[in-house]
Design brief:
There is one protein chain. By secondary structure, the chain is an alpha/beta fold. The protein has 2 domains: 131 residues, no CATH class; 151 residues, NAD(P)-binding Rossmann-like Domain (Rossmann fold). It is built from 9 helices and 15 strands. The strands form 4 sheets. The protein has a 6-stranded parallel beta sheet, with helices on both faces. Helix 2 links the parallel strand 3 and strand 4. The longest helix has 17 residues. The chain is elongated and about 65 Å long.
Length: 305
Amino acid sequence: MNREFADILHALERDGEAVLTRTAGGTLYRRKFVRPDRLILLGAGHVSQAVAELAAGLDFSVTVADDRPDFASRERFPMAAEIVCAPFENAVERLCAGPRDYVCVLTRAHQWDGVCLRAVLSGEMPRYLGMMGSRRRATGLMALLKEAGFAPDRLARVHAPIGLPIGSETPAEIAVSILAEMIRVRRSQPKEADVLERTEVREDLLRFAAEGDAPRALLLVLETEGSAPAKSGALMVVDAAGRTAGTIGGGSAEGRALLEARRLLGTGGAEVIPIDLAGGAEEGGIACGGTMKVLVEDLPVTGRQ
């Protein structure tokens, strides 16, 4: 097995993120692996349904909680990764929101909004916390929570009323305003200069790289310019039998890198390949005028399973 990729899998199970670090030409590159952000919807009404449908297509892992079995159901939320049917306070305790989570309080009544906010604010502050309702209702609840001893700086981080003010009225429009606000929060996180663009987790690729004793080679896109077929951080693994997992964009760019990968299999070597696609044409006749810098390296077998 390859110990480095086995450790990445373990880190993902433990922390939800991991990193692969490489240095090439004196430059440090970090390829992060980050599981989708978890969105916790407290309340399973019509607005939550609309938010869940939109969020599932925007790389959020949706969790829904409600105390009504007819609402907290797979039929209403087929896209949800998790559905919890329990009293709201118990659901919040069970879900244990953390600093990478997004939480939307979308309950059916002011009473339950207060229960949810108290429970969430009593734990670790999520990256995003929003509550649906009018400005007057939100102001009143914030005043009550302040009197109850909740820190003003934590209360100031609650998005209430929830969503960007776009004049939304229907559940679908409200969902757009909520997701727009969450995306703004997501994109406001500072970017690290040495971190590659792609951060998604491909379990099949990571296990293919980690497991077994047969020689395998890694292909990692370090840099791109122009209309390259893949972003930096694109990954691919190939073995001696020609089996692959992942892609670095397909077409002639991938073909050239795979030829080099097969040559390096079992040698312990590594090379950075510049690929210039200017004037070329990829599959389907679509011209690609970009360039790619691809790291190709033999993956060592560092231990047995």
